[in-house]
Amino acid sequence: MSERGAKVQGALGRLWGSKPARDAPASEAPAASPRPGRFFERLKQGLGKTSSKLSDGIGGIFTKRKLSGETLGDLEDVLIEADLGLETAERIIATLSKGRYEKGIGAEDVRAVLKAEVERVLAPVARPLEIDPALKPSVILVVGVNGTGKTTTIGKLAARFRREGKTVMLAAGDTFRAAAIDQLKIWGERTGSEVVAGEVGSDAAGLVFDAVSRARDCGADVLLVDTAGRLQNKEGLMEELAKVIRVVRKVEPTAPHAVLLVLDATTGQNALSQVDVFRDRAGVTGLVMTKLDGTARGGILVAISAKHALPVHAIGIGEGVDDLQPFDAGDFAQAIASSN
Q: Going from the N-terminus, what domains does the chain have, and what CATH number goes with each?
């Protein structure tokens, strides 16, 4: 490859995902993702219900009204109903109160404070998922409740890592569902990633043990491990997840090197409980939030970040492979505070 070609490939590798052609040879890396500006427009559209709910509420409160205890109370209700969390709501109220009490204030002023506070909360947690080249394999465990999009997220991450020139292996640790195994195999074909899978109903911990061993022996750069969806209040399932982690460490004592919790934005406040439990039982190191499109509860990411300060690696706004992108605090704050 020419020097210019290498630079181009490297630049593309820093972007996240377009859908690779189904008939592309397995050895070829997937194509580049769309321009970041296009993703912001998709994000703004996806958060439209959240921003409209906030904008309508703010506009209704601050139309030719002075800032008073009543208006601040009404605003706090709007912010909490949008799942921004009590802590963030109180900070916004405190900021607005400084020097403005009993003075006229417009909706645009309130939205500007909202944007600034949301960005302040999110900026420290907006961190890309990095792979240490010294680790072979870098073992990434993906966890979460049913229906959050774990398997699809794994496929999109595999596409990203393949574009970066990494060798990727996928482990079908969701042994309960044939559909999950088949879906992961399809992603393996599309991204040129080897898939370690067993029979439906086989022992998940044993399969993951085999996958980590094979990835180590093959010198794979990354091993992405799918796990079965499990409700955070089901003790037996959570203990099974803890067993998977113990087994991984028998092969690689420092693994898993990342534990990603995939959250569904539409679940609202329940996502906070999921972070509490999965962080305690599985040692979650970072978050991926999906399904931000079409929900009026996108503010929950702010509440989670204010409480847990866990890295937010990526957000998803749709089903396409290009709909999972690195998380940008400024873009998110601008989209959520938009008046549309």
A: 44-124 (1.20.120.140), 128-328 (3.40.50.300)
